[in-house]
Design a protein that fits this description.
Elements (H helix, E strand, L loop, with lengths): L6 H9 L10 E2 L5 E2 L8 E2 H15 L6 H4 L5 H9 L10 E3 L3 H15 L5 E5 L4 H12 L5 E5 L14 E7 L11 H10 L3 E5 L11 H4 L3 E4 L14 E4 L43 H16 L2 H22 L6 E2 L11 E5 L3 H10 L2 E2 L1 E3 L3 E5 L7 H17 L15
Helix pairs in contact: 1-12, 2-9, 4-9, 5-6, 10-12
Length: 415
Amino acid sequence: MAAPIGRSDAQRLDAADPLADFRSEFALPEDVIYLDGNSLGAAPLAAFDEVGIAMRKEWAEGLITSWRGAGWWTLGETLGNKIAPLIGAQEDEVAVCDTTSVNIYKALHAAISMRPGRSVVLAEERGFPTDTYVAEGVVASYPGMRLELVDIESPDLTSVMDDDVAAVLVNHVDYRTASLRDMSAISAQIHAAGSIAIWDLSHSVGVIDVELERAGADFAVGCTYKYMNGGPGSPAFIYARSSHHGQFETPLQGWWGHAEPFEMERSYRGAEGIRRLLVGTQPILSMRALEASVEMYERADIGEIRRKSQALTALFIDLIDQECAAFDLEVVTPRDPEKRGSQVSLFHEHGYAVVQALDARHVHGGYREPGVMRFGFAPLYTSYSDVWESVVRLKTVMKSGEWRDERFSTKGAIS
């Protein structure tokens, strides 16, 4: 039997952590253990300066000249090129713009335009709701087209793939269980049917060394306010493989994506490259906050981040087994580190109340119906000692039964 894991073991891991210094670059409240970075990342201290400069100097002093002089006009492409190495993309294949939902809408329409005559879009039956909602709206705009929901992890996925499927929308990491999908294998199955593979990277960008090009992805989207720490509502990104550029139609023909926007032409003429997928004026202040975090990732090694992510989640699972075996907590996240993202999910019949009670003890996790408690581990600011202390407090919540207090069961509009 392995020796019990102690607090000193977590402290030793922290002392040897090559990413430990990044923690000091975040604004984190004292005595708060933040394990909800898979919903909203912590604030980089540099973001305050970046937004301040953008407001007080570029906007207040530069005024309209900052579109050119401060690089506002091309900021979406600049940030896209900086994110590209994190997701295995090439230059001019990624743009930061709009929201994840809007980018899913654009990617689905683009894919359908590349497969004329096909009438089916596949999405996950247990995928993130916005993916399904957007897909429903997209197929509704094409007479005769239908949406089919499938179990993307089924070994028999090929049985639903035929020459009538135009596109398949897949979450790289399942938002409930943190199950990490095999992008290469699934993309190969999609391509074998002549279909287009669209990947949602919202729960993997910034913590997993994604390899879009090598894995055969056609399009990808992702948000930047989770592990990328861009701030609430920070703009998303979209990827289009360069070999597809000029081959697809875009459903939102805004002036930002025009070939010559300042020529004021009467009709739309799409720009070359990734800029064709841009639509309208972008949220520059939010993009400047994101820029601070993206520059942090230029200094951090994504491989090192992934290794720490696997170690943090492994430690959490081992401690749950060690300290909380007497309670009705089920680990629903894959135990194989190669098959999970940077999140560990636990099931409990009264999971919502447990998460609220834990929050009162200053451990911030997340909850998703039904009964799933989610704990996200952001390697740039989560320590091994955080993991140890979070499980100690969870054990206290379970052992004391304090989660049964009525105030912890009252649900609001946001959970």
